[in-house]
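Title: Request for sanity check on Universal stress protein prediction

Description:
We are preparing a figure and want to confirm that the structure record we downloaded matches what your pipeline produces today. Could someone re-run it with the sequence below and paste the raw structure tokens into this thread? We only need the token string, no images.
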Amino acid sequence: MKKILLAFDGTHYSQAALEFAYLIHQKDHIFLTGAFLPQVDYSSLWSYATTEREGRVVAPLLEDSTAEEVQQNILRFTDYCQQRGIPCKTHTTYLDFAMPELKKESRFADLLIVSSQEFYKQAGSEVSNYYLKEILHELECPLIVIPEKSIAPSTNILAYDGSASSMYAIKQFAYLFPAWANNPTTIVYATPQAGREWPYDTEIREFIESHFKNVNWQRLVIPNRNFFSSWLMENNDAILVSGSFGRSGLSMLFRKSFIAEAINEHYMPVFIAHQ
């Protein structure tokens, strides 16, 4: 059994995120925690631009957030779980459930699921690399970002650049979702020029072939920054797996296209693991 944390904007209910959790439950039973965050300015929530009240750090509430709406969504969540046999709990003291509480919960969870459309929409006009990096720095478990029109992924795309972070993400995905490792899997290495060898070629092939079946090894030469997004959109039945952000120019370009663009455009689930 896996312990999964599902975060909602209190007044907006992500059915897709909940259904994705149920997909996982069908493969390997889960215990699901519903974290109903108040409708807040999430850029403030994640960056600690918060206020002190009675010695606690809380998020600044927006005027149209109401307890009644949140309670209705909590009932929808618990009813859904009960009907499908998913053990669950919720946080009812949602007005104080800001970053410190979410961080604590993530320490004791295998995975956090959020909706790309609802959870990130208050980050600004688009999700930036910096914004994602700040979120990943605070979380203590892997994260899956789910588009609202999500379908069950039938293929895996593993983003690899030879870094420790990319291998960490691939490992966490393999350990958390062994059943999905049977799906067709593409491991992608982006390179600025043709002919460049795979980093740690022998070692990465040994690991991948030990955990994944039906693997396609894809080396992509980068003609321009938009190339990744166009290529990725051709694989809209996949889940993308990536590590957190590296420092090299190639790593940043690679992940900027694959992570930020995928989340901004809401076209596939994205699994991100941070060491």
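Thanks, this matches our download. The first strand starts at residue 2 and ends at 9.
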